[in-house]
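In the previous chapter we treated chains in isolation. Here, by contrast, the input contains two separate entities that must be folded as one system, with a combined length of 384 residues.
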Amino acid sequence: MRRRPGIGGLQTAAAARDQYRLLGENVAKLRTDLMKEQLATFRSQLEEFARKHKTGVQIVEICLSTRPLNGGLIDLQELCKLLRQKRKHDREAVSEDDCLRAISKLKTLGSGFEVISAGKKKLVRSVPTELKKDHNEILELAQAQGYVTVDEVERRLSWTHGRAIDALDTLLDEGLAMIDDGHSDGKRRYWFPCVSSISSFGADS
Amino acid sequence: MQKLGDFKLPHFFNYPPYFTLQPVRETREKQVQLWKDLILDYCRTQKIFIIGLEEEFPLFSNPVIERTLSHEAREAFFSALVSEGRAEWLDKGHRKCLILWHRIQDWAGIILNFVKDNGFEDSVMTVEEIRSGIESRGTELHGIDRTILMRALKILEQKGKLAIFKGTSADDEGVKFSV
């Protein structure tokens, strides 16, 4: 736009400013519109995801809410039972296989969910703690009565006292075990909430 | 679900480790929270105001699983309630605990509602009438611990809602409402 001297020139400059301002406003509006559209798309994708992965989302919720009670390890059957309770208004029943499928989907999302086997049981892990073989063996042993004693671990697994204590202390620290000093025989027991069906603590079913 | 009379006991009450004070902090925090809620719930439904830590109290033992709370555990749970303002120690030795399943301020509110519900805005009553009179029946005020009642009344007195005075007989104090 060529500058012209005099009043005509001033008017042209004013007109040019107006045009630039309008253009600027349009660009801002375009940006806002685009952002709104992106958010709307994202939101509907999220809702779609939640619908498709409803089971997965519910599993995450259950694992998170029971974590303070079981340290992040829950028996698969217990999980399914709690899932059924959560969905009691849902016509679709949930089988163990449905649960396992949903969990493997969660796993591919990199959420740290994993199904591990300990003896006869399948346990769903929702915390990043890696369970070492020693810990796994103790969990297997604990399934008989829901607890183990240090003696038992030493005897049945043929471990040294140190090895048994180490493993049990780690499980205790991870919140996977709880101590019980109340038995009349005076022996400390290590209980494992994840192998008993008591994950429904605190939220009375 | 196990019951203590009418009261439904929560699941954790049947799990032995909950009767031992847990060493791991996160686990213990959860344990303390569960026990605090249980104690308050039980006391509210059974209208219990004072608990002796060294006495037999139904929540301290579960004969079904043969477990009893150690003194250390009891002290931990009640101390937690005290820290939260839901209980007070009645003695330095921490042997007796006053349970505030309603906080004192909440009791004050309940008294005000009681006054309004019964049209006592300008009335005079004895303290004993408030807690055992006919109008108190069926309300939470019925049978309220006297210490708690006096504390709540004093709060209301400070707010100018009533005046406490000594009665004619040596027995009871009276309250003149000005709600």
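Residues 22 and 28 of chain B are 5 Å apart (CA to CA). Chain B touches chain A at residues 1, 8, 10-12, 14-20, 22-24, 26-27, 30, 34, 66-68, 70 (CB under 8 Å). Compare these points with the single-chain example from earlier in the chapter.
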